[in-house]
Structures are given as C-alpha cells and as structure tokens.
From TrEMBL:
It comes from Pedobacter psychroterrae. Residues 410-506 form the Peptidase S12 Pab87-related C-terminal domain. The keyword Signal applies. The lineage of its organism: Bacteria, Pseudomonadati, Bacteroidota, Sphingobacteriia, Sphingobacteriales. InterPro entries: AmpC-like, Beta-lactam-related, Beta-lactam/transpept-like, Peptidase_S12_Pab87-rel_C. This is Serine hydrolase. It comes from the Bacteria. SUPFAM superfamilies: beta-lactamase/transpeptidase-like (SSF56601).
Amino acid sequence: MKRLLSLLLSLASLNAVAQQKPATADPRFNDLDTTMQRVIKNWNVAGFAVAVVEKNKVVYAKGFGYRDVEKKLPVTANTLFPIGSVTKSFTTSLIGQLEAEGKLNIDKPVNAFMPSLRFYNNDMNNSINLKDMMSHRTGLPRHDISWYLFNTNARDSILQRIQYQEPTKTVREAWQYNNFMFTAQGGIVEKLTGKTWEQNVEEKLFKPLGMNTSNTTIPELEESKEPSLGYELDASGKIKKMEYFHINGMAPAGAINSSANEMANYLIAWINGGKFNGKEVIPSQFAQQAITSQMVMGGGLPSKAKPDLHFASYGFGWMLASYKGHYRVEHGGNIDGFSASACFFPTDSIGIVVLSNQNGSAVPSIVRNILSDKLLTLKYTDWNSEMRSNRDKSEEQQKKMEKESKVPKGKVHPTTHPLSDFAGIYSNPGYGTLKIYTKNDSLFASGVKKGMWLKHNNYDIFDIYIHNLNSPIDTANKMQSSIQFQMNTAGDIESFSSVLEAGLKPLVFTKGIEAKAIDSKELQKYTGEYSLNEAAVKVYIKENKTLYVFLPGQPEYELVPLGKDRFSIKALIGYSLQFAVTSDRKVTELVFIQPNGNFAAKKK
C-alpha cells in the first residue's frame, strides 16, 4: 500500500487530539479512571484504549497502561493497535459499495462474477453467494490452521486452497465462522476494481472517514508515530512480549491497525446510517442489511441469572445481540498479542471501541460492558469480578480435565524408523507445505512464522507443540491433535495425518521428494550398464545434471537424489534405487526397491 505522507500523519494526530474529550467532561465518566485501573490490575493487562461516541461526536477517549511496557510508553487514544476480526465489517462495507455501484449482486452465486473461486463440490459452487460468505453460512468450518501455520503473503495461493477444504454442513444449514470467506471477499473486491484490497480500504473507507493513521500492514504499524507492542501472560502470570503476526495474505479477514479515536469515526458512520460528516461512505441500504439478522449463531436463550441478555445472530461482518434489552451490534478481534471490541447501539446512537495489547483478553468485553451500563443508565453489574470468577472457574475445570487426561498408559513403543526417515517436505492442497526436520534428538516442523515441536508419544505418533520459529519451545502451547506418520508398501514413510478440523476425518499430508544437490562429477560414478536377470539396465546422465535409468521395454525414468547413494524414481511413488558403493567410492551394484520386493543388478 502507498505510504502516507508524514505531513498527513501529523495533521491526523492533531485532528484526533482535538476530538479527544477529557475524562471529567461528562459526569457519566467521573469515576471511570478508578474502574479502569482496577481492570488493569485484575487482568494484568499491558494497556488498552477506549473511545465512546454519541450520535455524531466523540464524548470520551482515553488510553490506559502502556503500549510499550519495557520503555514505559503510555497508551493514548491515538495509539495504533491491530484490530483483528473487527476488520471484517470493513471488507463487507467494500462489498456494499460495489453493490451500490451495480458491479455485483450479493444474492447471486459468486461464480457468476469470479469463476476462479472454487469450492469443495458443485453444489457449493452453484449456490454460495456473497450473503452466505458475509454471514458465515457456507457450510465450511474454520480451517484456521491452514492460514495460521501455513501463512503466505500470496492471496491467490490462499484462495486456491478453498476448493480442497471440506465442509461439515450444507450451505445455509448452520452458522460456522470462517476467515477464508472474508479473504475471498477481498479477492472479489480486487477483481472487480483492479486495485488491491488494501488500496480499496484506504481510498474508500480510511480517507473519507478521516482515519488517516490507520493502515493494513505490520511494517506500516511499526513505522507509525504510536505503535503498540503485543503481549501475553506467561505460565506464571507475568506480562510477556509477543511477536507481531503478519497476515498479509488473509488481510481482508483481520489485518487493519487503528486507534480508538479513528475507530470512533468508523462507529459514527455506522450509527448514522453510513454517513460521516454528512457524506455517505457506507451505502445506507447495505448498512441496514449488515446490522440485520442474516443467520442465527446459536440458541441465544436468556439465562435465569441474566434474563436481559439474549439472542445471538450474525449480520454482514457484525454480531447481533440483545444487551439488557438494547439492540447491540458488535464484533471482537483477536490476533497474536492483541484483542479488540467495537460495538454500537443503533437505536440509542451510542458506540464503544476498546483496543487492547493483550493476547486473547477479556478486557475489551469487560470495559465495553462497563461503559454500556453507564451510557445506557442500566442496573450495575460488576463485570470485572464476574468475568474474573468465570475465568477462574474455567481454569480450574481445564486443570481438572488435564489431570484426568494424564492417565498412565501402557508400554511406550519406539518409532518404526530412525527420526531422520520422518524428515522431509509434506503437503496438503487445502493447507500448504510443512518442512519436518531433525534437531538434536527431536523432530521439528516449520511453516512460515510458526513452527511445531513434535514430541514422541507412541510408535509413529507425535504430540504437537506450537511455537514461533525464533522463540523457545513453550510446552503450554500443546495442540489437542497429534501427528501420525504412515508407511507405504515399501516400508518408507510416505505421509502423515492429523485431525486439524473438528468434525472431519484426519487430513493427510503427503511426503514429497526433497532432492539433494549432487555435483555432476559425483553423478558420473553411478553411470554404466548393470545386469538384472540377464536384462541390461542402463544408467546415464542427461543435460549434464540429471541421472536417468532405462530398463528394456520401459520408458526412461528420471532419478531424484535423496542422499547416501539413494535415489527415488520421480514418476513412480514408492519406488527407489540404492547403489552399493565400496569404501573407495566405486559402485558395484544397483538395488531396485519396490513395493513387491528388492531386486539387485550387478554393475558390468
């Protein structure tokens, strides 16, 4: 995306400060500082920023805690945070603009205007429309491991995976959250406009909404005047810095970075039917549809303890619920080191945004609810204590489940092969490619930014521990699923399977051929004629770099070096060759390793 000029940044900062209201300007916020400090203490959060809008103006905006804990740099209402999935309504807004321009029809199957976007079967291809994609009702489950572990900046590559991702429901049968569908919407925007999703967001949303410091990439965040660092709590409850997670390929699902002040402008537009400063930014007809129930998320039944909290449905990039009798439109966001919540009450003309630099945090929800009660003059609920109690109960239950799951098992059997035999490149078309390698006495796997430590469990089964590639192993990040390797009929490791999506059978990753570089002079020693049951076998080099083998009555076969005088037959899965070499590096024999046996050929 084109860099914003430093002058623009300065002007935007001045404009945001002008919008900020002192905490004591409104009596409803008089005791808020004390409440917010209590939230920071109880949840050990690094920091967060808040903005409240009423009708068409900001009535409260302030930061708490630190955007950089080590340097003690404070959070302000202008601090930029990754907002995660709050990004989704920006993407649907672009779809709404294109619909208003007559460039698409959200009721028609998407293959009518983007034939390259393919799904798992023809029923999905012929029926899924943009309404389905914007409201999470395509039948696809999350498949999040695909983009989280197998991250890529290539959006086209991400979209190509969708056709291999299996659904768990039929179209419109159930609400199932899916990030890929929002990335696909971004792809549609790009195809119909000839500009990137990032350019569209900047030109059609950021600029008309005065969101002049907001951006869509981590480098832009890092170069901004007030970037926030991301944090998590370690096993002992101490604040620990996290690395930024670059999700360029999946950007339309969650890559926007913004501030409380600038997100306030966004909420003002939604509260006012899509208009900001008198100008329509989000088409009004689309805005109404977006905050109208399109798909039921769950039962949404009121509890005895909270009879005034009920119904749960989804619009277009927004979650809808009744909060103590008030219609609330909301969406949360989570990405490594950051949590967010943006909400508004359309009939009350009130909006709240909370941005936090704590991973998977309840703080945005707590602060949102505290402010909602104050602004709507509702009966007091001690959300801070209540959510902390719920958290403690959940953690106790989790510990109990972990303790019960640690049932002593029987004898642990070793792997069927040495660890080096499991190393290689494994691929699944719906997910991506993973490199498995040995280090010291363990197996590891690397994706792009994330990797895995594979801890031996039993036989060829390994437990999975996620970690950043540049960070030490954290045994707290254990996945529920495991990896199980499989052999082919020749006894070689050919694949692994793992349950990476609930409700689906284990996904299979096939081992590819990882060629070892061999000098052409080194290849020369393998060439010559061999005798196999009186049949003449020829081994020769072509193009001065590639070894081939030829048997009478068969085509020539290209050989791929695997190391230790072993080659695979490129065109035949499960077939390989092993050359017998003396201590002085002379070849005496060639052994064909096949599913039906091994066959030796003496060198002439």
